[in-house]
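User: Can you help me understand a structure? I only have the sequence.
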Amino acid sequence: MHAAAYTPNDYQMVPFLSDGTTRGCIRQLQMVRGRASNRTRSSQASSQSVNTSEGFDADPVNYEEALEQLPPDEKDLGERLRRHLQFFFLDPMEKWKVRRQFPFKLALQIFKIILVTSQLILFAEMRMSHVDFMEDTNTVMRHKFLKNWDDDRDAVQYPPSEGRYAVYDGKGIFEHLGFIITAYYSIQNESFASFSYDSHKFSIAHFMSRNASLNAGIKFDDIPPMQLCFDRIASVTVKNNTYEFDINNVYECSALNLTEAEVASIHEDPMRVEEAFKKRSITFNPEDALRISKMILKFSLRTIHFAPVTADQTPECYRINVSLIFDNSRHTGQVHVLIQTEINYEHVCNGRILKGSILPYDTVLMAVIDVLVLFMCLASLILCSRALIKAHLLKNKTVDFFEKVLQQPIMLSDRLEFVNLWYVMILVNDVCIIIGTVCKVTIEFRDFDNDIFTMTGILLGVGTLLVYVGVLRYFKFFNKYNILMLTLKKSLPNIMRFLSCAAVLYTGFLFAGWLIIGPYSMKFRTLSSCSEALFSLVNGDDMFATFYTIADSNTTIKVFGTIYIYIFVSLFIYVVLSLFIAIIMDAYEVVKDRYASDEHSFERSTLRDFMATAPAISLDAPNIQAQFAPSNLLNLVAGNDSNSVRALEAIDRMRDRIRDSLAGTRFESFANPIHDGQPATPGHDAFQLRNGSAGGPVFDP
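Assistant: Let's start by predicting it. Here is the structure, written out as tokens:
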């Protein structure tokens, strides 16, 4: 039972197959199995360089002889298992040659990548239009409501050419408040855009009778007042040059109900806002600077946006929630002025319903593509789930046979051979695309906000990325196109070990730079910006700016920062990065040598040794379809009532209903992508019953 069927020299003479799979190793072992009987014990002793896995003897077990010594029913089970494993490790094209079944999963992935790419392009155009609209609206709000804002501040510059927008005294605060109030109450008269107030006092009859537009004149009393909010501590008192603080936080808001006369006077002289605020007990004296942390002025506007990506430029109505923040949280005398906008879609603008006269063709196109993508991803999800379930059941059958019949354990590496990570990745991208498509449909029905837009973009982007990465799986079946995959597979373990050490070193530099240089350089001010600066230095970017941005106010920090950057750059560019590239190049050289050589060893395993004893597969043989007919393979669900079996049976029932619905149509031949119950093809001479077989017909080599 333990007689050697192959010698170490046999394994050394096996040529390297570019796909590196179990299937390739088995095929090469079958080519040399005839040489095993002529090997002598002396030749075995001279060839100890074979690459064997830990726990293996130098000689593999002769599983053919082991099967012959088993009872008929167990022998038949072993031969079926061996054939099933052979078929399991075939690639899609070889399975097509064996079963003559259309490669549905391959075709499905090709169609899916076309549809998903089309969906992504259409969504990206819609997303770009939406983001451009929001950025343009934010720019308009800054120019309309920030007193000294100019075009230079709109440009993103690094390092910034100007400091933060701020005011430094109470007079400056009142000047800005007067400017904001004037801009708000004249927004419809002085804006070229179609801004209107967020008021619900107008009916459709109002617009229809007066033939008014959204920019029509509105009575002052109908304009909604702004909201004025304060974030402050409870109280600050001064007694005998001693401060008493009640530091309980208080947040309060009230409507800023200004009269028409007050607004008119503020329009003539913005400083008159101080008088209006004093009437309402609102002051900005020096003692108030300790009490007030933030003052927020809130109001809402509505506007019309025409989507340029659509054929008919359908008008869309949006509500803009504007918050002007005077930030005094640091209490340094510098009050930062910020503006925040939140833009939401509205179905109705002041009572006027906006809708196109016809449904644009691009909306119909996007809807059709979304439906097709959903069906494609659901079908892909079902097929890949079924393949993973069947692989799991086959693994359990294999483990049971080896441990209970052959009394031999199956190692973890052999068990992992049944887990197809490509299918797992396809499942992940299918789930991402399905969820992203559902979110996209809600966006197209205008039930959305910025968070849904962002989540949809992330899900569709990640899903599409994984779809394209999954295509690389099919390149590994071609020797000259899979160099990238082989190099990554060979170098990945060493890369992960190397990066674990480099990450510890990088983290040390990260915290040291953040703590020491952070207060004196804007590039190291936060932990995330510090990490971004260091990663840029690793790639040789922005070195001089990093030196330059360290403040000269502290000579010690300036000198330390310079030495710190010198050491980091020298270590990570000249040592760490060079070693990282060397690891990848070493893996590439190994792969290239295997391409150039015909004789290379490979790792042995119990699973490979077992399949190597099977008859070699000839894809051109006339009886190949009968040899691997479902009736000659294992019944994976027999005697099993696990959750995996129940899930597989549910998928098969769905398959059967689809097959029955397509019976008698031109698509009937495509209705059986996952059918395992078709009978073996009769009429082949080499297919016969073995005497004493208890498990049904078995292919006799």
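Now, to help you interpret it: The chain has four domains: 8-98+603-699, 104-121+361-475, 146-151+160-353, 483-596. The longest helix spans residues 361-405. Let me know which part you'd like to focus on.
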